[in-house]
Specification:
Phosphoenolpyruvate Carboxykinase, domain 3, globular, Phosphoenolpyruvate Carboxykinase, domain 1, binds oxalic acid, 3 domains, alpha+beta, binds manganese (II) ion
Amino acid sequence: MTNSDGATIPTTRTDLVEWVAQIAALARPDTIHWVTGSAEERQMLIDVMLEAGTIEQLNPELRPDSYVARSNESDVARVESRTFICSENERDAGPTNNWADPNEMRSTLRGLFTESMRGRTMYVIPFLMGPAGSPVTRAGVEITDSPYVVMSMGTMTRMGRHALDVIESGADWVKAVHSVGAPLAEGAKDVAWPCNSVKYITHFPETREIWSFGSAYGGNALLGKKAFALRIASVMARDEGWLAEHMMLIKVTSPEGHVKHIAAAFPSACGKTNFAMLQPTIPGWTVETIGDDIVWMWVDDDGRLRGINPETGFFGVAPGTSDQSNPVAMQTMVGNTVFTNVAVTDDNDVWWEGMTKEKPAHLIDWHGKDWTPESENPAAHPNSRFTVSIAQCPTASPDWNNPDGVTIDAIIFGGRRRTTMPLVVESRNWQHGVYLGATMASERTAAGEGTVGELTRDPFAMAPFTGYHVGDHWAHWLSIGERLAAGGHAPHIFHVNWFRRGDDGRFLWPGFGDNIRVVDWIVKRLGGEVGANPSPIGNLPLRDDLNVDGLSFHGDDLTELLTVDPAVISGDALSAQSVLEVAGKRAPRALWDENAETLRLCATRLS
Ligand code: OXD
Ligand code: MN
């Protein structure tokens, strides 16, 4: 077998060579290209995609080396209903995942992948999740017939020669196979965004394998991301005693020079990227970005929790991102960025809802059609994205690339809740924090399927991403807590809600850069500098301890943000029982105890 450029295969790993040959024999691509990750190769991919109409170049004067892709209208988000965990035993996938019998799924996939790459190039992408040398860094190889996927994997992972060297040195690697499922008949003209109306995103946890068919959307097709770094890695982490979580990671430095690292889990499109790039409104604070979507954490030899960002880029939601809401993201994507499903301005730059107060008078919308402010539909798809390297982020901490990772001092859970949850609350202890994570809820966004706005319980913001039984995930968190307790350095766990609303729909809290005020309180709690107001759901800030200098609040908004109503919390705790019930016998007893304790504390206040 030779590479598409005529060179011989660049690896001596026979298991890899044989697997590539097997997939090629099944999918029958025209050519095979082993990805090196070089600059010339990136340019080759760009040329291929420009020629096919998959991407168009944006104005190089305004946004150098940047491109816009418009997807097929049916291929715009993750497809949770088509996502399967094919564990040997159905009960190991648990009640929150779609399970499929691994043998049946293999036979379905064999049918779908047969000749699925005809007329196309099959790219072989060696990649690393995490910097080489970290105890949790893992290798993978993605096979794909999509140049868009290769280019995006080049931004989001450590892809190419360097990763192949790690595999050559004997590392285990995860097998990830992807096809857009659109073979090209001889002489047929390609479409700009090939995909298939049949979609399967499948995971085989025991054999650490991923097969994805029919979609080129990032969350379904960049297999290093959700499929590997969350679904398969969560299984590896369970088996090996670490954590793979849907979190952002930041380094914060207080005006006094104290450094802390905070990991935070929010469901998709709830502001993780904004939080990861927060521009503090309190003078003297700095926030540095380590990651915005996924954190892998382990207990180090000193009994501390350490974490890395396994990715190297951002695949962020564009709408709502502006110089006001996230200036750092805007500065990050000034060039070398691929935009997907955004609108294009008359001077050939990008635009999306929320980018500017004034809507441009004319745009080409994400369908490629003329758009004016009178048009009924948004110009950019609500889940339109930017893909850009973290190296371009002005607030990137050099630690994003540090194999030793950083010590995690605090963990935050959060969601979009119009009511019920206060601005911030500190859990009573690790076990209570795990309960807050397990029962966290949020209003649905456009990043997945389902009705936008509907309240759903999303344990640890991992509902679409845990590759095994949800109850075992909670038990795993409890067991990590026991190991951390032994070392005496367990991070404190908090819950935040930036999205509380008043009766007229107004947000009670300004959010964005002002979230540093909550970070300030959290860091003071870590240092034992401030007290707290105990409540049925944990410790609330004392009003004077939250720095709100320079903010003005409507009526009782601040009080409402910092207090909880025991009747409302009691109702929420009763409703949270549904998520514990879903986990059935595998819901740890300790979490039912925390639920009972919450109800007991509410009843005490109400009596
Ligand atoms: C994402 C998601 O793209 O969570 O990060 O959907
Ligand atoms: Mn995400």
